[in-house]
Prior knowledge:
Blueprint: H1 9-15, H2 27-35, E1 39-40, E2 42-44, E3 47-49, E4 56-60, E5 66-71, H3 75-94, H4 97-125, H5 131-151, E6 156-157, E7 160-165, H6 171-183, E8 187-191, H7 197-209, E9 217-219, H8 226-232, E10 237-245, H9 246-256, E11 263-269, E12 272-277, H10 283-296, E13 302-308, H11 312-323, E14 329-330, H12 336-349, E15 353-356, E16 366-367, E17 370-373, H13 380-383, E18 390-396, H14 399-406, E19 411-412, E20 414-418, H15 422-431, E21 436-439, E22 451-452, E23 454-455, E24 461-462, E25 472-473, E26 515-516, E27 519-521, E28 524-526, E29 533-537, E30 544-549, H16 553-572, H17 575-591, H18 593-604, H19 608-628, E31 644-651, E32 654-658, H20 664-677, E33 681-685, H21 692-703, E34 711-713, H22 718-726, E35 733-738, H23 740-749, E36 756-761, H24 779-788, E37 790-797
Amino acid sequence: MAGSTIKTVHDIFQSMEYGPAAASTYATAQAWLDHHSRSLGLFIDGKFVRPADRQSCFVADSKGSNVCSTVCAVEDDVSQCASSAVNGYKAWGDLTCHQRAKALLRLVSVLGQHGQCVSELCELCGASCSPSTLVRLLQYYSSWAQLRDTLITNWTPLGVVAVVVSDDCSLYSLMLKVLPALAMGNSVIVVPGRSNAPPVLLLAQLFVAAGLPPGALNVLTGSDVSLGAKVAQSPSISYVTYSGNKQDGVMLCKATAGMGVPVSVSPCIGATCPFIIFESADIDSAVDGVIETAFKKKREVHWVLCVQESVLGSVVARLKLRMAGMKCVALQRDEDRVLVDAAVQEAQQQGATLVQSSAAPPSGAQYPPTVLCGAAPSSPFVVSPSPGPLLPLMTFRSNTEAVTLGNHSPHGQAASIWTEDLTLALETAKSLSVGSVWVNSHSVSDPCLPVSGHKDSGTCTDGGQEGLYQFLRPPSSSSPPPPRSSPVSMDYSKFGTAASPAIIPDDSHAASAPQSYLQFVGGKACKSASGSSVAVQSPGGNKVLAYCPDGGRKDVRNAVEAAVKVQPGWMKKSPSARAQSLFSLAKGLEAKRRDMAASISAQTGVTMDEAEKELELSISRLSDWAAYCDKIQGGVPPVPQSGSALSLPEALGVVGVVLPDKNPLLSMVTLLGSAIATGNAVIMVPSQKHPLPALAFIQVLQASDLPAGLVNIVTGGRDQLTVALANHSVIKAIWYWGSAEGCQYLQYTCTSPLKTLRLFCQKDEEGKDGGNDWTQSQSSFLEEMWRNAVQWKSVWFPTA
């Protein structure tokens, strides 16, 4: 018919557009909000509470209209909530595993009754999360609640857990923290962002209706993430976990520094992720995936398209075809339009060409989907992407170059690989430093998959059995809860800057003069870069036993450079090859038995019999780690969707270790073995009080077959070297035994980039080191050490 505007099936397939969405009235959600007078209170002790004289925050929908208001909690509310959570923990923890599992499963049927209200409220507030996704989370973690004591024997819940999220965090990311914490028997205080506060309050009400004891789940709302820091100040809180954008996460870490509460961060918003298309890919499917993830889904991450040069023309041609006629995408704020225009203008000035669905309107909070072809990895619009539907496109020639491009970002959240070559897919997935890899797919998630934030994308593992351990305390005493304390008033810029004690020449004869030791960097015994030394005192402090190098920032830098060169090759070695090296190290230690025992006795003042016992335990501990190398290697989790998945434990990279005073040799080989058995390289700072056993161990390292630079020992002032480790961007994790000031400094400083921290406050004058019993032989002791030395990656393979 002439002039007809009706589209044929062929036209629809050519444009690949979605049909018109049905208008939603949100009637059920509006009714629930009206029932609460559109003014939602706090959820404490199983009921809504609205204290008087509290400020309010307004929640707006996507069009900027006010949906409802929430209460801004103050310190009195935090105190009341913490008290309720303690009582809730006792009631929830006293239930059997079966009873907790029944309560979580009961919520599935409750969601079936009120799923429409949950769905509409999520959509209305911009915190989209389908009820089916929540049902999957509940089913998975209710099963773990049932099997906790069977499969995770003797591990106990932490107590009260605080879950803090930013305004732009999804409800799924929040519940991925809340449900495993509850399943393991903890009580939870949720501090939601502004957009997901109404759905979380509704879910808390449904949890209580399903049988959760009052106080087991509490919700405190506020204006920003600073409320999370106020919650962390409560002595009842055992653990704080955060999810959202990195800026709020960094602010939370700094605000909680020195409080004595562990804080983990999962920045799931704003990361830059590679979308890699190889020449062996199904180009049509890959381009459809690009359009879907970059322009049609809510963007929690920024994608960068990496295309092999041989298929660049085909990909660009199909992009133009798929994008033709696509509608403009609404920006979140009017101010974002200025940032988008600036990024596009800058890209064109640098030689990039545009592929757009239509011409950009002259103004307004809308912009057409745009591909910036010819981007460079160092371009500002690639490194710091602007908001809006902009997709940088880069090219590569070889597989190695593709991995280099994919790892160029400081983030390590996810990657999407498109190829029909399975060998290439596996090789690339293992080489990318990201937590999730999707092969010929994108944005697939399931709670059964363990995912760790690599590089600057997190300090904990979520999902799978591995994600449960952050909410549990091991049966061994290796990780006692840190004593709660108030932050020390300190000048962070001056920490670790005190000069070492001066060494004054004495009149001793050469034959009786104290021995001078060397440190171990890059496989060589050497002096410190400063050329200075520090005196090692006898146990009574009345005699100089030896002199050791006074290392500093340059020594740490040299050690890290050596470690970075050798660590990738060591990680790729087979587990059996690493095991042989560790067995060889144990034999070398046994060959130096007499010298090592004498060093322990002279340094610590224990008898030779006691020194011999520590040495024997050290040899046995290295043999344990050698045997451990090839025993735990991930698995194939059962996924509910069509496809297969792998969960792979990987090395952290370069680990800095500030060693404790107690059992100087046994503690050193325990931490050294856990690090290198899993593929890491280490920079070790011996105990400032008892460094001689570590320095004597250098002879064992020199005679071993470990690659030069894998293990480095730098001696000197503990605070000075702690600062050097904290400020080095390559070091991924720091394990620290030291002062309260040092713990606070690391919590405050290790945020850019994020570092995984294990902090133990020891009291030097009493000879304590945070309660660690290094002589214990429980299997959970080694298991905990192993879990702290790895990060997890999930790889998803779809099937027809």
